[in-house]
Amino acid sequence: xxxxxxxxxxxxxxxxxxxxxxQKVGAPATILPTVMLRLGLADSYFSIETPIxxxxxxxxxxxxxxxxxxxxxxxxxxxxxxxFGRPVYPATDGASVLRSAVxxxxxxxxxxxxxxxxxxxxxxxxxVLRKALEIPRGEVRPYAxxxxxxxxxxxVRAVGTALARNPxxxxxxxHRVVRSDxxxxxxxxxxxxxxxILEEEGAQPAELxxxxxxxxxxxxxxxxxxxxxxxxxxxxRVQPRHQRMFxxxxxxxxxxxxxxxxxxxxxxxxxx
Length: 272
Ligand SMILES: [Zn+2]
What we know:
Bound molecules: zinc ion
Shape: elongated
Number of helices: 11
CATH superfamily of the largest domain: Methylated DNA-protein cysteine methyltransferase domain
């Protein structure tokens, strides 16, 4: 049996069983990772510096599969295998392209869309993460917004759980989802780090907290009569003298304000 670079994932089920057996009997250590990676039975990884320290990024031909913080490569390899049930090996060739794509994404200068491998998650969890990807850098949305946008308005707690289980934090920006009361909330990479990342992205978390405490959950423009979440790029453009603050959607609509179609702070039915 030969294996070359043309071998694809498709139709390789029989091959993969052979190679799992091969692993048991002890294939040469230098060949095995290459074969496993090519067959999609293992992922490769590199580490990269971020505003919250170095993190490990794993990927396979389907896309990026994990972002984790760990003390070192060995700890990461162990944690990855525990969580995903397959091995992960240090990336050799080819990782430089992905590494610079990830770096650009983290800097807020994406040159294209990153691909993600979230096949291990439920449909609901995948919908939550895909929705989180829509939140622009420098902005945040409440948990309830995600729940409503994916058609499960009552599943706010489940949204929180799905975000907490996000296997690809930082790149799938679960940190951009916060509580409606302005509390930044929990974060898989450390609650304090969530604040650090939001600050770094320009979301001004301390200001959000101050607004929420003052009962200002939405910002409207007295000139357009449109209201937004405070971090929406449209809300940020409203001059202070034209700003109107609202405690609730009902408050805003009772004063003749319509929800922004970009950040969608209220259900579709309320939109003009
Ligand atoms: Zn808006």
